[in-house]
Every structure is written in structure tokens, then in C-alpha cells.
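Propose amino acids for all 686 sites.
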């Protein structure tokens, strides 16, 4: 007779199974929602600052401005102001040839642009001709030396001429693109009624090659949805989105470029002097600039700011399916082995020699996508983007954080070997790490000396006595024996559980054990270690920790070791602590902290500076005050990098003998470090 099943045990199994399904469905729904989030959407009508002044969207059709109408009346041309505009343009051009002036040039640019808009639906050739004329007339208005004393930058007409230049140039580029001729390095010939124009597309960035460009898209076609702030700089030129093409003979750093990467470009048309006045042959250069490195150019001995947009190209790239792998937060938590093939450094913009890398390390159940708000805001600061480049680290967050930290050390060493094998790029040696939550622990582990402390958490016996395969020994050695990464000079930690998190409790650890798939190889290797080394390991040591949730428990044995591990004096730490508002319900439920990490756990006494931001754990790294603090630290880092080394005259007075000199050189960094900490503490108290 079969045994009677225990009804209580059966109900328990059903409850466990139901909880697993509910949690799995919740995570799946959340991941689908994140995947479907749109960063940009296509506008019904491209954004155009000329739409209002010229009534481009009016049912009755576009119309010239009052200033142009006034000029037409003065020259008895008002009746010639027809939509086609050919008659008035011919007559006004004759007047301007006889008596050149800025008001005629402005009217010619405006009327040419309107004639081009009128012709777009009728004749592409005519539209190209008229828009080209509008660009030339606006260019003459802005740069012709004959009118320097008459140009008034405070006159709205001056900005109108800039908008006409930009708008007409964009219209030209749209037509050229439809013809498949918007290709870097190529030369196109445009025949007009009275001249021949040669347009050569020239790359003005040492970071780009002609084969890097797959296609161009126009910033004005897109409306940002997924980023709060749009950084658009006003000047001359057409902001573009360059979609990068993967090609053969790629440079080494392209290993870190994700598929579907796009980057900002500004197109500027430079009208060169006519090469043959008798034939009217004109040569112009369509110059492509990198707004991340060039914010202004020289035109006719004048400094001209470039029109640029840094946010829309980023949002466009994030909207592409090729970058979906960067948002692998749920998969990285639930199935670390599946995410391992995606693990590594990523660059969302071309590598920029001479700029200091800022590596952003995400936290538990997260991905590099979580940094996009901060990345967008920091890059919007000219002082930051002129000196820094931003990298991102993707890792499976379901595994214990010390394993991920070991892999980060490996990946940083590999990146340096690929990008700068001769160690000639001094900027890489000033790297800054920014870590959120568990990413802060990974970042901290890149800067400390392990000694024997970390291994002693695993076993009290010498590592040399361990019996294991060579591969297992190497992996364990890389995890528990390490030196500070020499490139890292500063670490910013945000809402980091230095002393663990109460979020890692019996319930969440049990749930994690049910949902997170532990790689079978990891389990089999651990079993083999225990079998080959009986009584070698401590009870409940780090090898028994299966998931990242377990590794963040307040009683985790590695956290006190990490907190007290020695670090070089050359590394500076800055800490940001999260705290919920006093009146919130979540604050009353979770206590003093950000809802996940308590204030006491997030404190870091070794930090040179520490601030508290009123925000919850999941949004603190996007909070404006957090972004401002990170920006402040980065600017402080630049001041220290740029500071001249202390001269011999600044040394301590007892440096006469060789022995005394050695003593003073040994002590002086300590003295400097103390003064810096005092200054930081003073700033924090204010």
C-alpha cells in the first residue's frame, strides 16, 4: 500500500511552485516592458526653426517675413513675390550686384529657400538649385568681409540668416542623400542656371575613416522620448546621426564597439573662393565635424560655433535592436552563464586618444542602459566631454560580486593591451570608476591589495597546498589574490552596500536560489574541490555562496575584508549615500536608507568626500544632485591631473642630506594626502 502523502508538505510545494511562477512572470513582464521602451520616435514633420517665421506649415502656404516684404516694396518688387520666386530673385540679384548690401543678401537667401520649398514637390533639380543659392546667400551675409561693419549680431535677422543657412543646407543634404551621393570622400557636381558647383565631402576628424559611415540620418526627424534632457548647441551646421558600418581592417579598439553604434556629426558647407571667375565655377567643401571634439571652427578668420545635438544620436542608437544586448538586466540576473558571452567593456562612441576614461559599472539586476541619463547629462557639459570619454561594463549580476570583480580586472587588462599595448596613452592611467550599488563593490575591488586576507576567508591553509586542476587553481588565484589596477586613480560609489543589505534576507535568498540558474560547471568544480581537499576549507566559506543575493548579505564574510583592505594613496574615493524622504511610506517600512541599502551600510569612511541625496535606490544614480556631484568630482580630478608636480623648492626644509632627502620624498605624499582630505572634509561640511 503506497504511503499517504503529507497534505501540508504538498501545500508547501504548491505554494513554492506558485511563488516561482509569479516571480518569473513578473520578471518577464518587466523585461518585456523595458525592451519595448522607445527612446525616440519619428516626427510627423521635421523640426525646423524657420517654420514659424516663414509659415511653412500654414494652409495658405509659406510667406516671406515682413523685413523681406519691406525690401520688396522699396524696390517695387512686391507683386513679384510669387511662390515660385524666380522673377523676384533675378531682379533682386541684379540690384544686389549693382549695390551689394546685407538686407538684399538676407532677402535673397530667404526667397531662394522659399522657392526651394516650393520646388521640392515639383522638381528635385530646381529644389537643389534654389536651396543651394539660399546657402550661398546666407553664407555671404554671415561671412563676406565687405559687410563686417553692417552685420549686427543683436539683430534677429542675424540669427535668421543662421537658420536660413542651416535649413537650406539640410534641404540640400536631404536631396543629395536621396540621390545616394552623401558619401564621405566623394565629389559631386551640381549644375545651376549660371554656375557649376563642385561639392567635396571632407572628414574633419582624425577618429573617423570614410568606410566608418553606413548612412546618415537627420536629427530633426526625431523626437526624444527616453531621456529627460536634450543637449543641443546653437551655431552653424546641420546636426546628423552617423550610423557606423562594420568593415574589414577595423582598428583594435573597435572590438569594444557594439553593433548598431551611431554617433553625432555636424555638417558644415564651406564656400571656397571661385576657382575660375570667367566660368562661374565654384568649389565648396561639405565638412563633417565631430561635436564631441570640435565645438567651433574658423571661417574667414572668425570663430564660429557649430550647431550640434549630442542627445538625439544617443537616443537613436539605444532605440536600435542591435543594442538590445546592452539591456540584459533580467537575463544577467537569472541566467549568468547566458550573459557571460556578452560580458565586457563597451564604448558607445569612438575611442578618443588623450581623453580620460570614465568606466561606469552597473549594479544588481541592471545593465549599462541604467547609466544613460547620467551619461547624457555629463556629456552635455563642455568641460567634461572635452577631457573625458565614457566606457561601460556589462556583467552577469546573478553571480557573486567577487567573481565579477575578478573578471573586470581581467577585462581592464585586456582592454589596455588592445587599445594601448605600448602604454603611450597617459590619459588611460587616470581612469575613473563610477559604480552603482553592487557595481560600487566591483569598483572598490579594483583598487585594493588582496594580500592573504581574501583567501583566508575561504581557507586557513596555504593556497599552495590546494589540490586542483591548473584551470581551477588559476581561476581561484585570480579571484582571491590580486593587486590594484594601476590605471584606476579615482572611484565614485553610489548607494553601495559596503556592509551588506537587509534586502538579502532569508526570503530573497531563497527566491534567488530558486530563480537564478547556477552554471553547472561551477557546481561540479566546487564538488571536485571538496572531494579532493577534505577538511581544507572553512565552513560556509565563499565557495558555498551561489548567487549575488547571497553575496550581499550583511553577514557576508568578505565585506569587512573588502572594507578594510589597503589601497594605494594615489587612489581617491568619493561616496554618495541615498536616503528616502522623511514622510514617505517606504521610509517607514524599510528604515533609514534608500529602500535597499541602509545609510549605515552605505557610509564609507575612507572616502575623501561623501554626500547624501534624497532618492531611492533604483533612481539615485539618475538624480540631478548625484549627477552634479559626479561632475564636481570629475572636474576636481582634472585639476589634480593638470596640477604641476611639486618643485624641489616646495620640499620640507630638512632635505639636505641624501638620507634626509629619501625621508622627505617618502613622507611628502602623506602630507599632501592629508591636506587634500582636510580640504575635502571642509567642502563636505559646508
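Proposal:
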Amino acid at each position: 500500500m503506497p504511503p499517504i502523502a503529507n497534505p501540508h508538505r504538498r501545500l508547501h510545494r504548491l505554494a513554492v511552485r506558485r511563488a516561482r511562477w509569479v516571480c518569473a512572470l513578473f520578471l518577464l513582464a518587466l523585461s518585456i516592458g523595458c525592451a519595448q521602451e522607445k527612446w525616440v520616435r519619428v516626427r510627423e514633420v521635421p523640426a525646423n526653426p524657420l517654420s514659424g517665421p516663414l509659415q511653412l506649415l500654414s494652409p495658405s502656404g509659406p510667406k516671406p517675413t515682413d523685413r523681406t516684404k519691406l525690401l520688396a516694396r522699396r524696390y517695387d518688387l512686391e507683386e513679384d513675390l510669387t511662390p515660385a520666386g524666380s522673377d523676384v530673385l533675378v531682379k533682386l540679384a541684379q540690384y544686389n550686384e549693382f549695390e551689394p548690401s546685407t538686407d538684399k543678401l538676407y532677402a535673397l537667401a530667404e526667397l531662394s529657400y522659399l522657392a526651394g520649398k516650393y520646388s521640392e514637390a515639383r522638381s528635385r533639380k530646381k529644389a537643389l538649385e534654389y536651396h543651394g543659392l539660399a546657402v550661398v546667400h546666407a553664407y555671404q551675409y554671415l561671412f563676406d568681409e565687405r559687410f563686417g561693419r553692417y552685420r549686427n549680431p543683436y539683430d534677429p535677422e542675424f540669427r535668421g540668416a543662421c537658420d536660413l543657412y542651416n535649413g537650406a543646407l539640410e534641404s540640400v543634404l536631404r536631396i543629395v542623400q536621396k540621390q545616394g551621393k552623401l558619401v564621405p570622400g566623394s565629389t559631386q557636381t551640381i549644375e545651376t542656371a549660371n554656375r557649376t558647383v563642385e561639392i567635396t565631402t571632407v572628414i574633419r576628424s582624425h577618429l573617423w575613416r570614410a568606410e566608418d559611415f553606413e548612412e546618415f540620418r537627420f536629427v530633426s526627424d526625431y523626437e526624444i522620448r527616453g531621456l529627460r534632457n536634450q543637449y543641443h548647441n546653437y551655431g552653424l551646421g546641420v546636426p546628423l546621426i552617423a550610423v557606423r558600418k562594420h568593415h574589414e581592417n577595423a582598428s583594435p579598439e573597435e572590438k569594444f564597439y557594439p553593433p548598431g553604434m551611431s554617433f553625432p556629426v555636424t555638417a558644415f558647407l564651406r564656400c571656397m573662393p571661385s576657382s575660375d571667375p570667367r566660368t562661374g565655377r565654384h568649389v565648396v567643401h561639405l565638412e563633417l565635424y565631430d561635436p564631441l571634439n570640435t565645438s567651433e571652427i574658423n571661417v574667414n578668420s572668425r570663430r564660429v560655433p557649430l550647431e550640434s545635438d549630442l542627445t538625439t544620436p544617443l537616443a537613436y542608437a539605444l532605440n536600435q535592436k542591435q543594442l538590445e544586448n546592452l539591456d540584459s538586466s533580467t537575463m544577467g540576473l537569472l541566467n549568468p552563464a547566458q550573459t557571460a558571452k556578452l560580458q565586457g567593456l563597451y564604448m558607445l562612441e569612438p575611442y578618443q586618444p588623450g581623453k580620460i576614461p570614465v568606466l561606469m559599472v552597473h549594479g544588481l539586476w541592471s545593465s549599462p542602459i541604467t547609466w544613460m541619463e547620467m551619461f547624457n547629462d555629463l556629456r552635455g557639459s563642455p568641460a567634461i566631454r572635452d577631457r573625458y570619454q565614457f566606457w561601460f561594463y556589462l556583467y552577469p549580476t546573478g553571480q557573486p560580486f567577487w567573481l565579477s570583480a575578478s573578471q573586470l580586472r581581467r577585462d581592464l587588462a585586456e582592454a589596455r593591451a588592445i587599445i594601448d599595448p605600448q602604454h603611450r596613452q597617459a590619459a588611460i592611467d587616470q581612469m575613473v570608476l563610477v559604480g552603482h550599488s553592487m557595481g560600487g563593490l566591483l569598483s572598490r575591488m579594483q583598487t585594493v591589495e588582496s594580500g592573504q586576507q581574501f583567501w583566508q576567508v575561504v581557507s586557513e591553509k596555504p593556497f599552495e597546498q590546494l589540490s586542483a586542476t591548473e584551470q581551477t587553481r588559476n581561476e581561484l588565484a585570480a579571484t582571491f589574490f590580486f593587486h590594484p589596477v594601476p590605471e584606476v586613480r579615482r572611484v565614485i560609489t553610489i548607494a553601495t552596500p559596503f556592509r551588506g543589505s537587509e534586502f538579502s534576507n532569508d526570503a530573497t535568498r531563497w527566491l534567488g536560489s530558486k530563480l537564478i540558474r547556477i552554471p553547472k560547471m561551477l557546481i561540479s568544480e566546487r564538488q571536485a574541490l571538496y572531494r579532493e581537499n577534505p577538511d581544507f576549507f572553512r565552513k560556509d566559506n565563499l565557495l558555498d555562496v551561489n548567487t549575488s543575493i547571497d553575496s550581499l548579505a550583511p553577514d557576508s564574510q568578505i565585506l569587512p575584508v573588502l572594507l578594510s583592505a589597503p589601497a594605494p594613496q594615489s587612489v581617491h574615493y568619493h561616496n554618495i549615500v541615498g536616503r528616502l524622504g522623511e514622510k514617505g511610506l517606504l521610509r517607514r517600512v524599510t528604515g533609514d536608507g534608500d529602500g535597499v541599502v541602509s545609510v549605515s551600510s552605505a557610509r564609507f569612511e575612507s572616502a575623501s568626500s561623501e554626500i547624501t541625496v534624497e532618492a531611492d535606490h533604483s533612481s539615485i544614480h539618475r538624480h540631478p544632485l548625484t549627477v552634479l556631484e559626479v561632475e564636481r568630482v570629475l572636474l576636481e580630478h582634472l585639476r589634480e591631473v593638470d596640477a604641476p608636480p611639486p618643485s624641489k623648492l616646495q620640499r620640507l626644509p630638512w632635505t639636505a642630506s641624501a638620507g634626509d632627502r629619501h625621508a622627505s620624498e617618502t613622507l611628502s605624499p602623506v602630507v599632501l594626502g592629508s591636506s587634500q582630505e582636510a580640504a575635502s572634509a571642509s567642502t563636505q561640511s559646508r
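The chain has three domains: 66-313, 323-643, 653-686. Residues 653-686 form one domain.
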